[in-house]
Target: AfsR/SARP family transcriptional regulator
Amino acid sequence: MQIKILGPLSAEVDGTSIVPTAGKPRQILSLMALYPGRVMPVPTLMEELWDTALPASALTTLQTYILQLRRKLGTAMGPGAPAGVRDVLATRHGGYLLQIAEDCVDVYRYEKLAREGQAAFATGDNEVAAARFRSALDLWSGAPLVDVKAGPVLDIEVRRLRESRLVTVERRIDADLRLGRHAELIAELTDLTVRHPHHEGLHSQSMLALYRSGRQASALAAYRRLQRALVEELGVEPSPQLQRMHQAMLAVDPQLDVLAGPRNGSTFDLFAA
Model:
């Protein structure tokens, strides 16, 4: 079985889709796929499906949805499958279990590659770090579970994955900056700073990429746009480290020309106190 969460929901057994068309069974499959090999408690599934507005028939209805998933699974597995349907989507005390390996789910492959990238980044192996981060991000095909109407439990998972992806993008850019790929990053960072107008880490990267590409005026203009957005929309000034980076650019500080920052630090931390 192969399950994709990082984009539209996809789940296949030997090339045959087992994704149901109905919304609530899709929620169940998505949530259980995020915790492969672990029991998903019935109360958690019910919370995902109905939040606090549980119908009187909640337990019976949940069992019906599980049966529908098992039927889809059984059709895909065929009569000669080595493991029975109830061995793969198993009933356990207090809940249900999707008995598959973690690497059958793209989320776990993504997180493994991201961890490997972070480990390489922390030791200064920027080529490996950038490659691992890029491989991790290549597993994404859109917003996580973009075609699943998430309840309260899945919504937390989706938010977590979105934040994780943004952190991985930021770290990959840090590695690329260390490798001197400044000009190549400008277009991407322009898009990212528009999408995340208050994200100081991305703005610091954009400023540095512009500055090191010989575009000091554009780097200073990027700071002014961020400052204006923070003051007008949130009532705060940029952080002290970003202000120090801005002052360093005004002073043409030679420290800004060093290709590699602190061995295990981010671009945003270059001017940390």
In short: The beta strands are 2-4, 10-13, 16-17, 39-41, 89-92, 95-98.
